[in-house]
Amino acid sequence: WNSDVCSSDLPVQIISPGIDLGPFRFEIFSQMASGTIDQFSLTLQNEVTKTWDLTPKSMALSLYPIDFPDQVQFFDPHFRLFVSGDFEHQAGQLTFTGTGIKSFRKNKAKHKDVLNISGVQVKTEFDGNFWRPDSLKHVTLDALIDKIDFRQNNKDKGIRAQGVYFELPMTYPFRNIKTFGRAGAKKIVLHDKIAPVVSAKVVQASDFGMDIIGKVTRLGFSGLSIDFSARAGLDSAMSPFVKCQIATDQFSVTQNTLIPFIPGISQMGDLKFDISAKADFSYINQNINSSADIQVSNGTLNFREPGFSVSGISADMHFNDLMVPETLPGQYINIDVFNAGRFNGNNGKIRFSLEDGKSINIENFKFNWCNGIVSTEAFRLPSEDNAIHLTLYCDRLEMEDLFHQLGAFDLEGGGTLSGRIPVVMKKTEIGFDNAFLFSTPGEGGRIFIRNLDRMLAGIPKNTPEFSQLDLAGEALKNFEYKWVTLKLNTHEDTLAVNMQLDGKPLSVLPFEYDRNLNSFVRRNGQSPGSNFQGIKLDVNLSLPFNQVIQFGSNLKRIMNP
What we know:
Layout: E1 5-16, E2 19-33, E3 36-46, E4 51-54, E5 71-75, E6 78-85, E7 90-107, E8 110-128, E9 138-151, E10 159-170, E11 181-190, E12 197-206, E13 209-217, E14 226-234, E15 240-248, E16 251-254, H1 255-258, E17 269-284, E18 287-303, E19 308-321, E20 326-327, E21 331-340, E22 343-355, E23 359-369, E24 372-376, E25 379-381, E26 387-398, H2 399-406, E27 410-413, E28 416-426, E29 429-432, E30 435-439, E31 445-450, H3 464-475, E32 479-491, E33 494-505, E34 511-514, E35 519-522, E36 535-544, H4 546-559
Antiparallel strand pairs: 1-2, 2-3, 2-4, 3-6, 4-5, 5-7, 6-7, 7-8, 8-9, 9-10, 10-11, 11-12, 12-13, 13-14, 14-15, 15-17, 16-17, 17-18, 18-19, 19-20, 19-21, 21-22, 22-23, 23-24, 23-25, 24-26, 26-28, 27-31, 28-29, 28-30, 30-32, 31-32, 32-33, 33-36, 34-35
């Protein structure tokens, strides 16, 4: 060196808990004039090394509740800080490049939650007087990343982002220069399914804060794009914060759009839903808060088997925590019409809440069936035995419609039945367990039942059993009852129906008492028959229950596509 120029080159070691960055070099060059420094430059850069190793959990980072990875590695890192100028004005550049960054958690011999970042370039340029920060005229932050890849485990296809970029013009202290930068990703691949594109404008909003306004497109659903806005940075206490809002226009979900995510859904049938959503997220004072509103409308499900469908599905759901996720109690799903073969209902309302992200509490399920009302008590999905046990409380079901849907009798007239139907749904099976319905006390009625020949099938003639059922079938062709009870039970694909009635037939029956059989038997046309003033009938039928069984199979497809 000489009296006008001096330089120095010193090794520097950065040591801190959880940080191993290897050696750095610090170089300073100055030019003297009249005994004072006229010009200077300084450079800080790392020595050539293969990796930097960080252990975030050992570092003094106060970012609770963020769960840091166990290890972070920087490959082929190159850090360089260069500043030059005089005491009135300085300019400089900070750059960081590397071939990759990898973070992971250690799980015995395997790694999980692995994050790979390749092709990293970060550059900051500045111009002004550091001794008077308000004089800084020009600060920019640019970042480019070739690819980001995240996998939960080695078999997971993960999430990949390609062509990630970030540019932000800045001032310090903050001056509202209203100069926008840009940020985004040219391609994001989610589990090899969809490849959305992210683009945004960014602008400085405070000393250490920025506003972001952007859009996500190409999400694989017709009409779906996500608009988002956010403010992020460091607050006055130098703690990180994020506030974010997202919203979608209404878009349609169909069977074809879901096949890449749920391949088995192609075996179910056709479906269509219109959906819109908005959500809020914030990380402030080390607390995470999130919420969302999701609207569903015009929903339809048409199963492959004819006669099995659900239409008019709508919902307006509020999630009070997306991290769990969970909803507030009292969420509703509405169903206009559902059909399961001969069974059909309408005006369904499901009141529910999503709990702890793993279970759904069905607070109440209510629908119209057979021109009456059916409701349930509360139950939780999934149950401990993976079966659904619920009781249908029935209020004034019309007998004519009920018997038609059960496929039991060709009945006209009648009144209404109320009671309860315990239902067990397990795997693809649906069964009734000691269901009991009864007519309204004190209110009789009149019924006309035809085509009861099935009761006589397989029963030998000239037996008391045949005569009793033959009499019951004739009496029920025109019968005035005081009360009716109905019991329903299922065994595999068979429905056992027991109907008891108390009343009288309204016409003379072609039957006379046979002392030998100790029973009434049918006589020929020359017999005057018998006029019954009161009679109790007990009718039993075994009916195929395969339509309800098929409904259970379709329900299984919905729950486990």
